[in-house]
Amino acid sequence: DTAVELRHVYKRYTTRRSKRGAARVVDALHDVSLSVARGEFVSIVGPSGCGKSTLLKVLLGLTKRTAGEVDFGGGSRMGMVFQQPLLLPWRTVTKNLLIAQDINHRLSDREARERAEAMLSMLGLEEFADRYPGELSGGMQQRVGIGRALMHDPEILLMDEPFGALDAMTRDQMGMDLLNIWERDRKTVLFVTHSIPESVLLSDRVVVMTPRPGRIAEVIDVDLPRP
Length: 227
Ligand code: ADP
Ligand code: ADP
Known about the structure:
227 residues; alpha/beta; three-stranded antiparallel sheet; 7 helices; 32% helix; binds adenosine-5'-diphosphate; NitT/TauT family transport system ATP-binding protein; ATP binding
């Protein structure tokens, strides 16, 4: 059961230099093929500039691929978590979880409130429901960011270096928290990180990209018991 499949995907950025300069061409994705099973936790590692963000952007539809196919098995609802939690400081934690609801009113207000409550309990943040982001630690704020991404029950959770702004200890703790969430929810996760240990610890498979942008060097099956 496939959640998403990329077949021979290419993304070329062409940047026009000012006045006399020639156009600069970057192949940010070069013949990328990857199939992710439903419920699988896949991480993507590689040095800065190797095309990790571009891969997520292509999946989100934030940028158009130059060639190739992207196939979302059942549906394509996606949740996105960025390096910064991007919470609205003037809204409480609960109100931050309800942002999408307040815009699209997809659920009844009651259902949405119940979902937010369940989410806070899953995240271990019940006591902070009515607090403001500024009163929370960085790790807690990022947990709210993850909760917000899960509020509309996405088929795929995309995470771009979600713990990159946290200190090392919080980062390790957040990795464990994410695993707990994943084990309850079995969401398909695509997790971008610079950290090879983190990728090995958390995921079923590690996609290693090469410094030369856009290419997959290898895909490693992780066959370790999870902590
Ligand atoms: P990563 O997320 O691994 O750091 P990116 O996907 O951001 O890598 O970038 C891959 C390559 O594409 C880099 O060489 C980067 O400079 C280039 N790039 C990314 N976005 C753009 C853009 N909008 N225009 C031109 N080049 C870009
Ligand atoms: P990351 O934190 O993933 O490495 P970057 O700092 O490389 O992200 O890129 C930040 C933003 O700038 C992205 O939206 C990316 O698409 C854009 N970008 C990156 N490289 C270039 C480039 N060479 N030309 C234009 N835009 C770029």
